[in-house]
Every structure is written in C-alpha cells, then in structure tokens.
Amino acid sequence: MSPLTYALNVSVLPNYVLLGMPATESSNALILPLTGHELGHSVWTNENLENRWAAPVQKKVYEYIKKEKSSAKSTTDFLIVDEISKIALAQMEEVFCDAIGLIIFGESFVHAFHYLLAPGWGGERPLYYPALPTRAKFMVDHGGIDFSAIGYANFPLEFMERQPRLSSDQNLILNAADFITDSVAGELYKEATKKVLNDIPDLISDNNANNEIIHLFKKGIPARRPRSLPDILNAGWQYVLEEGKTYEADGRPIFEWASELVLKSIEVLEFRRRLDA
Amino acid sequence: MLDCMSLALKIEAGNAGRDEGLSIIPEPDISQIKNSGDASVTLRLGRWFISLRQSSHPSFDVKASANEAISEARAAKHYFVPFGKEFILHPGRFVLASTLEWLSFPATLGGYVGGKSTWARRGLIIETAAGIHPGFNGYLTLELANVGEVPIIIRPGMKIAQVFVHELLAPEHKLRSTGQLKGRRRPYLGTIQADRILEKLSVS
C-alpha cells in the first residue's frame, strides 16, 4: 500500500480518493493528477487483482529460482518464494496505479509525477516500489505518450535512487521481484487501459478538447465548458510550462495563479454537471 | 451603461476569449439576458465565506500599518459550503462571500455591483464596495450583513447580486486594474493600504 494512501479509503470512503502531500504543496492544484495513482489502489483492491495475479506470479518466481539456483543455496526456501511474490505483487500494484493515472490524466500525470518525485525520494529505494527510473521507463515504454514532444528527451534519466544495502539472499529476492515486475509491466498497462476505456471512456484526457481551455487560461479566464478533470489539468500544466514556471504579471507565483484558474474551472465543471443531471 | 443586447454580445465575445469582451464564468444564460430588457446581469452566490474572529483581537484600527495588522489567518475564519448545503446569517452578523461567477473585464469596461431588492427588503445587505475597475479579473467580494430581525438562510448558487456595466468614454487610455483583490477565487480580507495623509492628521 502506498504511503500516500489512507488505509481506510476503499472500505470506509468508497467514493473518495485521498491524496497526502507535503504541506508546502497543499494549495497546488496541479498535483491533482497524482490522485489517478491513488485511485489505482482502489481499482486494484476492488477488482481483486492481487488474488488474480498471485498464481501467475508464484509460477514466475519458481521459474526464476530454477534458473538462478546455482547463485543461492537457500533458493528452495518457501519463505523466500513467499517474500519474492509479496514484493513483486506490491511492485506490480504500484505499476498498475501509475498506469491508471497516466491513462486517465495523460501528460499532466507525467508532469505532476516529475514535479513531485524527480530526482528522487531522497533516500534508499523502497523495496515495495519499482525503482523510480524503472517506473519512468514503464511509462515511456507502455504509456502511449510521446515524451520527447512534452519536453523529456530521456524521462528515466530524470530520476535517480540509491540502491539499498542488502544481504545476498535479500539481493536475490529483490532482483527476482524486479525481474517479475519488469516481465509483466506491459500487461499491467494493457489491463489498466482496458479498465479506463471501459469504465470512463469520455473522461480520459483529450489533447484537442483542452485547446479552448488553454486559450482562456492565457487570457486569465477559467474554463468555459470543461469536459473533464484531465482536460482542465492538462491545460493547467501546459499553461504553466508555456509561461516558463516564472511569475505572472502581477507578481504572484505562477503555480498559485494557475491553481486558482484550475480550481475555478473544476467548480465550473461541477456546476455544469449538476445543471445537466 | 450597456443594455441587455450589448451585454449579451460582450459576454459572448469575452467567453470566447476575445480581448474586447466581458467574460463571465460560469456562463449566464445569454438568450435570457438578450430577452430580459434589463441593463444588468444577475450573479449567484459562491461557496466560500469568511467571518471575522471576534475573540482574537480587540478592534481594527484604520491607522494600523500592514506590519502591525494581524494576519488574515488570525483575523478571519474560512468556510466552504458545498452546493446543496446552507449558511445561516443571524441578525447583526457580517460575513464576506463571493460571487460564483469569475468576471474578467476588458480595459474598456467598468461596472458596479448591487444587491437584489428582493433580499434587501428582507434585511440582507449585499454590497458596499461596489465599483469594478476596468481590467478587473476574478470573483467579486460581497459584504453580506443581516440587518433584519430574523436569521436568513443563504445557499451557494442562489441569485444574490447584479452587475451593471459601463463603457469608458476614453477607451484609448487603456486602464488596467492592479488591485490586490483581483485574480482570486475566494474572498480575501486584504491589507489596509497606507494613507500618508491620515498618518499626518493622526499625529497628536
């Protein structure tokens, strides 16, 4: 479970996604696309994906151990098989959640992910997450977005992480989990894409739909007829990036100014949906 | 002052992002404005409110400098009221609210916001700082006071005010609002601007 996920969200607050953030970002609406990742945890749980993947993952663990048997004497230990499966499934959940966020929010998820996490967490790599450069590589390889067109010549190189110091057995476990996660990342992205296209086809990001919003943002006006949250956030990020992350004419930080436009646009979206209901 | 047809055309232009237009978002019913025969646009109540904390400071001093003034966080309490919920304004109480609409005036138009007589007759005073400068951009702050004798239930989204729009006689001067209150989505207390004349007059 992500440290950004409140453990009670699925069962007690089924209609909410809670996003924990550093206090300094509490008024920054442009990090909202990261709720897509947290929503992914709810999807993973509600769709019972951990149970569905448990058997295939265990099979892959045995195959990996069989192949690597000569490198570790304790590879037949049940506990190790269990530990590898546990870490691989946790990593896979994170990859699936990235995929849900990316498919729903498109470019704005990439920018928010980079804004918050690049160049790294600031410490050793947590075992239950794929390495940050690996998560970035999965996005590039399977996300269906032209990263160079949105300003990232080599997205994985934007991230770095210190590898944890581990014993040889622990190294075997982590390498096995990484290998398994890597081998199924494409499938996880396909599964997330299918889920999003099936459940909310009209709400995913649409580059054409946000052109009008960007035009209005540049005039200092909120969205007139926003179609979806991703369109507003994609327009918000494009506006900020085109303004150069500097300051607006009256001296306010651009993120503060853009957040006002984005949040007002979200209110307009809610207003229009209530009228159309 | 702009008539209903001129208002509708200006709003259509503004909401399409054209420089000469007046933008009002969420967009009011344009055909209703065209057919209204009125010279104003009705505005609705927003969802954020600010009330002043009575317990954290003894008074406001108009002579206080920006450094001496207490912060907005200490002086005021913010409330968010979702659509479908209500805010009760008791007799004698005062609260800052905002319009639901975000207005963006071009450099060639200014305006005045006023209350709705229906509410005024029931004791709800809506606006006292009514002028809108050319180039203003953001929500309008409403200073709500219940001067009647019974509590008034107010609800986000209700019709609360009306804005009258005027065209500048010399638009070539390109006026542009630079006030601290523009470009905001929620009510903002703001700071009291320094007044050198008052400072000199106040020396005892």
Task: Please provide a written account of the structure.
The complex is a heterodimer of chains A (277) and B (204). Chain A has two domains: 9-199, no CATH class; 211-276. In chain A, helix 2 packs across helix 4 (78-105), helix 6 (132-142) runs parallel beside helix 7 and helix 8 packs across helix 9. Chain A has helices at residues 9-12, 35-46, 49-68, 78-105, 107-117, 132-142, 168-199, 211-218, 229-243, 254-276. Chain A is an all-alpha fold. The radius of gyration of chain A is 20 Å and the shape is elongated. Chain B has 204 residues and is an alpha+beta fold. Chain B has a single domain (44-201), classed as Deoxyuridine triphosphatase (dUTPase) (Deoxyuridine 5'-Triphosphate Nucleotidohydrolase, Chain A, Distorted Sandwich). Chain B has five helices and 14 strands. Chain B has helices at residues 4-15, 30-36, 72-75, 117-120, 196-201; strands at 23-25, 40-44, 48-52, 76-80, 87-89, 94-98, 102-104, 109-115, 124-125, 131-132, 137-138, 141-146, 152-154, 159-167. In chain B, the strands form five sheets. Chain B has a four-stranded antiparallel β-sheet with strand order 2-14-8-10. A three-stranded antiparallel β-sheet of chain B has the order 1-7-11. Chain B has a three-stranded antiparallel β-sheet with strand order 6-12-9, with no helix packed on it. In chain B, helix 1 (4-15) runs antiparallel to helix 2. The mean pLDDT of chain B is 85.
